[in-house]
């Protein structure tokens, strides 16, 4: 496996990967740091049999054009978490462009071309699967999937669908788990393989839903939905109303209520409650916090209200996690 990424203007090879697909306990890891005229950042790789995970973040000083070469035959689960990119390669009929919060599945075989980073900050996660690994999970009796399967069999680089889809909350949670996995050795390999399959499941389900049409929201409104999501996750104890959240990102409560459900498949406060409960479970089970401490940390007026909400979510009282 060989991937090379370089910038002609800077006369340096920015990135070159030849990561082996086996190491201790069958898993290999590598982290590359970028720092130079174009900006700074990092890219981390984790590989095991049939799977290569790569993710990173880059802060750019300006728009950058790069060149890439790859001898891989791969099926890539691509997640553009932040920023805009544009790939031009002769193997694809059209340029492949990604923006914030978009995902797709791409088949590529031995491609080279130009990559343009158009944003000051880029964050991505890309999971490359061997075709044999991917084909084990590609459903049959679906015209969209059969066309993609045919492209793989013929060796024709292609996207599973020409329309990118939006990364939903479930996908973000899995991606976060992958990028922040602290397990080691065989347990890390088991965890990551399970999460990759779960993430692939969510992608294929989203593609297969016939009524899953692209959102009617404008790009700027979609961005505002993600701004609200990020605010709630970073301010878990806040008690803002729907109107206050809407005004915080420059929209109205009707657009927020409708748009958030359309993008994330749940209500604003349903999402916030789920995030609070997950944080509560972590604070109690992993950090040993008391029920009273957690209730206060999450903005509940009293511990009884918090305990009721927790039991309704998980079916057990929060105090039972400390046993």
From TrEMBL:
Every HTH araC/xylS-type domain range: 226-323
Annotated source species: Marivirga lumbricoides
Name of the featured protein: AraC family transcriptional regulator
Keyword list, A-Z: DNA-binding, Transcription, Transcription regulation
Lineage: Bacteria, Pseudomonadati, Bacteroidota, Cytophagia, Cytophagales
Keyword Transcription regulation tagged: yes
SMART domains according to UniProt: HTH_ARAC
Domain of life, per lineage: Bacteria
